[in-house]
Amino acid sequence: MMRYPNVRLRRLRRLKGLQTLVRETSLSISDFIYPMFITYGRNKKDNIEPMPGMYRLSLDLVMEETESISKLGIPAVLLFGIPSSKDSIGSGAYAGNGIIQEAIRIIKHTNPDLIVITDVCLCEYTDHGHCGLIENEQVDNDKSLDLLVKVALSHAHAGADIIAPSAMMDGQVYAIRKSLDSSGFNQTPIMAYSAKYASSFYGPFRVAADSSPQLGDRKGYQMDPPNVTEALREISTDIEEGADIVMVKPAMAYMDVIAKAKIEFKHPIAAYNVSGEYAMVKAASEHEWINGEKVALEILTGIKRSGADMIISYHAKELAPLLPQNSSF
Fold first, then answer.
1. Minimum mean pLDDT among 209-218, 220-229, 262-271, 310-319: which range?
2. What secondary structure letter does DSSP report for 201?
3. Residue 196: active-site member
4. Tell me: the pLDDT tens digits for 153-169?
């Protein structure tokens, strides 16, 4: 085995240009998916307090916002809706004129090249805050599937490019894939929230989307954080059921899961750099304890290095001007 002084690993670190030439992982704008929160009203740009720089936008501001996202080179957005009212069955999630359905139509009419991904869940739309129907104070998996299918179909009819079921109901990918195919949407991909953990990092999102559960918690259907093998089983099942892209959520504390999934499956992998991860960077940066931009870039590079093919991140807009954009042939 060769060693010092014949081996000097620092030689390739001496100049920035040398570092660039041998760099193993490259983060680019084209890796990003930018989440958006859409609400009713006019000229509303409501600050989300625990997520500085993020807003709840009314429908009339969606066109301007998505145009700015496209100009930055970000290829895709992930939409979350805040309805005007809620009920026990989350009917606003699958209404033909629902908040997300209207947002999809605006974006695809004014900015057709931007990829629109829609979150398919019920938690933002139910008065109990859970991701499915409640029966006897428990989430009923099988009865929830019918409603999730209705949400997915309503999004597809409105023009969504990718359907992203996030409720963590067993069989949701199969049910949605079957329904999309039989309804003329066999070319619409599914991005499955396959390994979605019952994480404490979701707190700021629940403020943004007003989606905190009003009884119990989501540990009965979201994954237990210590488990890795279970995550691989979830991913494998979703692939078998027809998922085109699989996701690990959150990202930072679960890079080992991303890495194992990348080795195990030859499938595109999305990683969700979630609200709590974003909020921690922002809070520390505001206190000048860290350089927020540099830390965010380091975190996202780490997520990419672990095996993610695409990253959903609230940092995307602020970091886009600092990054290259991959060009196509």
1. 209-218
2. G
3. yes
4. 999 999 999 999 999 99
- Sketch the domain layout of the chain as residue ranges: 26-319
Q: What's the token pair of residue 243?
A: 């998922």
Question: What is d(CA 173, CA 192) in angstroms, rounded to the nearest whole number?
Answer: 7
**Model pTM score:** 0.94
Cα angle value 75/60/282 (rounded, 5°): 55
Q: 276: which 2 tokens?
A: 């709590």
The conformation of residue 108, written as its DSSP 8-state character, comes to: H
86, 150, 249, 260: the active-site residue:
249
Based on C-alpha coordinates, what's the Rg of the chain? 20
Q: What sign does the CA torsion over 80, 81, 87, 92 have? A: negative
Q: Is 249 a catalytic residue?
A: yes
Question: On the CB side of 20, how many CA atoms lie within 13 Å of its CA?
Answer: 4
- The catalytic residue among 196, 260, 282, 304 is 196
Domain spanning 26-319, CATH class: alpha beta
In whole angstroms, give the CA distance from residue 7 to residue 201.
Answer: 43
List the structure tokens of 32. 């990003």
Cα 18 to chain centroid, rounded: 34
Other C-beta atoms closer than 10 Å to the C-beta of 9 total 7
Q: Residue 159 carries which DSSP code?
A: T
